[in-house]
Design brief:
Layout lengths: L2 H22 L6 H8 L3 H7 L3 H24 L4 H18 L1 H9 L9 H19 L5 H15 L1 H4 L5 H16 L2
Helix pairs in contact: 1-2, 1-4, 1-6, 4-5, 4-7, 5-7, 5-8, 5-10, 7-8, 8-10
């Protein structure tokens, strides 16, 4: 198998895992199911991924990297309102780009388990950092509540409204979140 064929197989495995994890949940989908759907043997699958949790990490890692980059890019801004707007827009754009993967992270509780602690810890830390930036410098408890609400307002509906066109959803979610923050 050439390096290109190996990369193509790896991509097919990741895409198939996304489909099965979404349809059945992470916990319910088996490596055997994934291998069968891709058309490879289970040992071949384990050649590409040592475990289901490694496969999940490969699936969610790139979007998490993009979310972290968006949040840190926003943090570099000077004006608090610019920071808030950039956090909202940056996270929303990444989440819309990776809608299916975000649905898995936001709606499938089975992805949060002992074997996925490292990946899910990144997600939790990312959300905490985003909310802290949205709250601004020295927020009172009400400001922290509004920041958490704004982050939820811009992220949670993405998975609940898969039939709404991305551009329309983006505009409405930003409107709601920025209203919560008084932007």
């Amino acid at each position: 198998m050439t390096r290109e064929e190996s990369g193509d197989t790896r991509s097919r495995i990741i895409e198939t895992a996304r489909e099965l994890f979404t349809a059945q949940t992470y916990r319910a989908a088996s490596m055997r199911d994934i291998a069968a759907r891709v058309g490879i043997t289970k040992p071949s699958l384990y050649h590409h991924f040592r475990s289901k949790s490694e496969l999940l990490a490969s699936l969610v890692g790139p979007p998490i990297d993009e979310l972290e980059a968006a949040v840190e890019s926003a943090a570099a801004r000077r004006e608090p309102a610019e920071v808030q707007r950039q956090v909202l827009e940056g996270c929303l754009d990444v989440m819309l780009t990776h809608r299916a993967t975000m649905a898995l992270l936001l709606r499938d509780a089975s992805v949060y388990g002992d074997e996925t602690t490292e990946v899910m810890s990144r997600v939790v830390a990312l959300m905490t950092r985003a909310v802290d930036l949205l709250a601004g410098p020295d927020p009172d408890w009400r400001g922290r509540v509004r920041a958490a609400q704004a982050f939820a307002a811009v992220t949670d509906p993405i998975t609940q409204l898969p039939d709404v066109p991305a551009a329309d959803l983006r505009a409405e979610l930003l409107h709601g979140a920025t209203t919560l923050l008084g932007l």
